[in-house]
Write a structure and sequence with these properties.
The protein is α/β, with parallel strands linked by helices and 294 residues long. The two termini are 20 Å apart.
């Protein structure tokens, strides 16, 4: 059961890799700026079948796995503490499946952060990538961190958010403004439009102008009210005729992270992040934050 100290905390998965260590430092900086606790979660791998649990206990392997996970958490703690001497940091080690433990923590977390290993860039949902499983199942925003491990902390570049008409996109907009305010940077709001029906005919120039104006109006409508709520955040609006993933990957080169909504709508797709989100998770060189309608 969660405690009040867990509520709104930033939870980061720690596995001892250089990428996970960088993700922890990134999450620690964000937690300090937002004045919320940081939870460093280490998971000692253990299958949950009863016979397996008995075997681990009889061979004393579980204590060794816990000790190894604890060492990884302590390493991350030292790195984050070096960056953030005053931050509130909790160290937790549990036995189980990493993805499941992170998903459980997402119920009360502000955001869950985990690193994307190199192999995750080529994995699929069928292969059970931890990053993809957590992004699909978590109930809070999920930041899949990828970047330069030697310079992981946030910088002065804007936060990029993909804007469409979905509830997940609305959640991503709110998250983008909150993060940008905490980081003291701007928001780059991108709306990419590409109506397949338009590919069947070639409109006259005036028609393209009308369509572009319609899409600009849609973007302004989606952003309405957020500048009033966050007057300190400068907003740059971009409307582009392009596939959304292609446009977001292009503009991500000028941003420090990318935020996007999840597009699941039914019994099947409600369990899966949308194709644009998956494209970004596989190919973005920046942290990608997946947001769901709350």
């Amino acid at each position: 059961m969660s405690t009040p100290a867990d509520h709104r905390s930033i939870v980061v998965g720690v596995d001892g890799t250089a990428t996970a260590l960088a993700a922890a430092r990134w999450a620690g900086d964000l937690a300090a700026r937002e004045r919320v606790p940081l939870v460093l979660l280490g998971v000692a791998p253990a299958l949950e079948h009863p016979l397996t649990a008995v075997a681990l206990a009889e061979t004393d392997l579980l204590p060794e796995l816990r000790a190894a996970a604890q060492r990884k958490v302590e390493e991350a703690f030292a790195a984050v503490r070096g960056d953030q001497p005053q931050a509130e940091i909790q160290r937790i080690v549990e036995a189980g499946v990493a993805a499941r433990k992170l998903i459980e923590r997402s119920a009360t977390a502000r955001v869950v952060v985990l690193a994307a290993k190199l192999s995750d860039r080529f994995s699929t949902l069928l292969l059970g990538s931890t990053a993809l499983v957590v992004a699909n199942k978590a109930t809070c925003p999920v930041a899949v961190w990828r970047g330069k491990t030697d310079h992981p902390l946030p910088d002065r570049r804007p936060v990029l958010v993909g804007v469409d008409g979905s509830p997940g996109s609305a959640a991503a907009i709110g998250e983008a403004f909150e993060l940008a305010s905490a980081l003291d940077v701007g928001v780059l709001a991108l709306h990419a439009w590409n109506d397949p029906d338009l590919l069947q005919w070639t409109p006259v120039p005036d028609a393209w102008t009308t369509l572009a104006q319609r899409e600009k109006a849609l973007l302004s409508e989606r952003l309405a009210g957020w500048s009033e709520k966050y007057p300190d955040v400068a907003v740059t609006k971009v409307v582009q005729k392009s596939l959304p993933a292609q446009a977001l990957l292009e503009h991500a080169e000028d941003a420090q992270m990318v935020l996007i909504g999840s597009r699941g709508h039914n019994r099947l797709t409600g369990l899966l992040v949308g194709s644009t989100s998956q494209n970004l998770l596989h190919h973005s060189t920046r942290p990608v934050v997946i947001c769901r309608e709350q």
